[in-house]
Amino acid sequence: MFSEANLDWDNIFYLTVTGRNDWFSVLNPGFNSIFYPSVGGSFILSEVLKMPKFIDFAKIRSSWAQVGSATVNAGSINEIYQISTINAYGLPLLSNPSALPNPNIRPITATTVEFGFDVRMLNRRLGLDVNYYQRRTKNDILSPPISAATGYTAGPQNLGLISNKGIEISISGTPISTANFSWEMTYNFSHNKSRIIELAKGIDYLTVGNSIASPVMINAVGLPYSTVRAYVMKRTADGTLVYNKATGYEVQELKDLGVGYPPYLMGLNNTFNYKRLSL
Question: How large is the C-alpha radius of gyration of the chain?
Answer without folding.
Answer: 27
